[in-house]
Specification:
Elements (H helix, E strand, L loop, with lengths): L11 H26 L2 H6 L5
């Protein structure tokens, strides 16, 4: 592992949940931005063909 020494600073039981929680928050923000800023995406999700 290239970055193995990070666990000398941050305990894996704290660092991994924080990292995965950050990924979750960013993913939810991106999805909400796409849903709120596009006209076609909501129609596509509901099954509209075009």
């Amino acid at each position: 592992m290239n970055q193995g020494r990070i666990w000398c600073v941050v305990n894996p039981t704290v660092g991994l949940p924080l990292f995965l929680g950050g990924v979750l928050v960013i993913s939810l923000l991106v999805h909400s931005a796409v849903l709120s800023n596009s006209d076609w995406f909501a129609a596509f999700i509901q099954g509209a063909t075009g």
